Amino acid sequence: MSAATKVIALCGGVGGAKLALGLASLADTIDLSIIANTGDDFEHLGLSISPDIDTICYTLAGIANPDTGWGRAEESWSFMDSMAQLGAETWFRLGDKDLALNVLRTQLIQRGDSLSEITAGMAERLGISTNIIPMSDASVRTVLETDRGTLAFQDYFVRLQCQPIVSDIRFEGAASAQPAPRFADLLLDATVDVIVVCPSNPFISIDPILAIPTVREALANHPAPVIAVSPVIDGQSIKGPTSKLMAELKLGSSSADVAAYYRDFVDGLIIDQRDAALAGSINAMGVATQCSSVLMSTLDDRCRLAQEAIDFAERLQV
Amino acid sequence: MSAATKVIALCGGVGGAKLALGLASLADTIDLSIIANTGDDFEHLGLSISPDIDTICYTLAGIANPDTGWGRAEESWSFMDSMAQLGAETWFRLGDKDLALNVLRTQLIQRGDSLSEITAGMAERLGISTNIIPMSDASVRTVLETDRGTLAFQDYFVRLQCQPIVSDIRFEGAASAQPAPRFADLLLDATVDVIVVCPSNPFISIDPILAIPTVREALANHPAPVIAVSPVIDGQSIKGPTSKLMAELKLGSSSADVAAYYRDFVDGLIIDQRDAALAGSINAMGVATQCSSVLMSTLDDRCRLAQEAIDFAERLQV
Q: Structural domains in chain B?
């Protein structure tokens, strides 16, 4: 690999953004492009909302709310309080600062700008040097079949707090969507050194990206090693509903199950030391393993894990 | 007149809203409908903004900013600061609380609700019992020809702070607009007892209402007395650019010039005591006069002037 390692990272929200921040903090040695899930995007209160893009942007800009994992630090809620006074829906909380990105994106989309252009412009304004690229400029919407009927993602995730039992997940619009132009270029770019699948929920954060035609095959055929970081430890998701969902979808909920789900395109999986006993069965699937600590509590954890993913890829490449 | 006097008030923003509040505070004895100018409305940052409707709503709800004359009291500006950080236009200031009304209106308009329905719903939510009716549900936009080119109203009024020299004013969309349904009903309602033209700018706040086909004639032909309150004292506008505009448009800038402009449909004009010398020339136009103090510094002033307008109408009726 050259001195400046060219890295693509597929990324969802909170957990994925932590590793993305770790990768971005290696900016001296790597050239990073983050591909953001947009299956969580939705139109709400007349606004075009892209939760994962925003979480990644806020995290990389150092202005994310460290307590919630979404939204901005030192946020205020006057807008939301006034919306409540006016009888508007308030289950999806938009802070006064956070609202700016959403209002501006909505305006630019209505003007005809692409989500790629809008995201690049906002990242630049926030002082982010990493490329942040939506998976697609087309609308792809994660929809869940549940015991409480068909639910849009944010209805399930935020309004109903993941309580419904999920029987199926689909990505409306994915079949006719294309990867965003810069993502499509990277998928065909032989100078890419490493592809990282961040420790995001495989079914609701990574799968929408994989559901876009050509992406999964392009990852499988790409010359660069593809390294995933497991989002589960000892059968439990680190954050969010991953393990609950995996159980409901009868996919199992261990790191070995994650490996089985990614095996067709992933070359290596970083698993937690507590899952070391699973290494043999994961290796038997043709997926290399590395044991580490995948819990990222501090910025140091994020940088360390990011470097480990790069180093792991380098060893697989050799 | 019956015990519950039925009153229509034509109203612009700040100055007009003061008298509207005075009229509304007589709610025990009058049944009030306020017709709001929407020529100032515009689309900005992707939002549908109706400054005069909102000023009237905030004023009547007791949540208006007493210092600025627009927006809400105890406002915060986190949204605007974040917009500035993102490089968005910030010359039109939208506070965090104020934003709620604008976001909600935009959403409802996109859903297909009429501005009348939206305004009535918001007024109800804000605890306002007075009927607040937009002059029209159609888009009417005040546009000014100036020495700095053709300007949309808010560009002139807020962004350029009324500095350009105005040579003409027109109301785009007015010719094909209709009065909002409840306004149209009131214009034909013989049980209306008094029509009040609030002390708003005749050319930029009242004229858009009059520019809608049938309105000016309906006012002239209505059996109820039409009482205007002069927005100028001694040739100077009490608030805003009225006198500057009148001079530029070569219309003069005295209360007598206001009377001349309204004479075809106004029966009486309340002028300030300092303009008492003009009463004779105004009366000669067929417009009755009453001298009062038209400066409304306190809530008591507003109630007093509102009651004087009703009493003046009653005397003219007899």
A: 5-317 (3.40.50.10680)
